[in-house]
Amino acid sequence: MKTAGDVLSALFGNDFVQTANKHSKLFDSWTDITAKNGIAAAAAHSRIKNLNNGILLIEMDHPGWKQILQTKQSKLLNDFRIRFPEMDISGISLMLAKPDSSKQPEDVIGQSEEICETSGTTIPSSVPPCENFTQPVNEENVAADIESIKDDELREKLLKLGQTIAARK
Predict the structure, then answer these.
(1) pTM value?
(2) pLDDT of residue 107
(3) Domains in the chain, start-ordered, CATH in brackets?
């Protein structure tokens, strides 16, 4: 039986997985970039929320942190441009979070993370350990693997997702 990672890789393809890895690295870099600019404490009160049309949206939990980030905005932008030149980041937009939108689920807070050796992706410790997904995926068997999923709702969603992706190709 294929793992969920195998099924998703078969459905989305390598280009999607590579793009997802780049975005993951961008989102994970927030702590390092704030620390480099002397505002490490800001990382605990803010986060990268989105990257859209070259604009990096940063969300924070208090107006005071917004002011602090505004003082370093041009340096932050420069660091993102240097670290991620392929993403064509042209600006940073700062916004206050809606109440409770910046909080993580209680079961994730304080848990450690590990680096998946096969992909280099940072994974919360609440996720089962990485496995080596080097065996090739036989796309003809993906539908059969999906059919073996016992959860009817999940199985239907995966089938619809596969159809949507196939229609876009």
Answers:
(1) 0.53
(2) 39
(3) 15-105 (3.30.300.180)
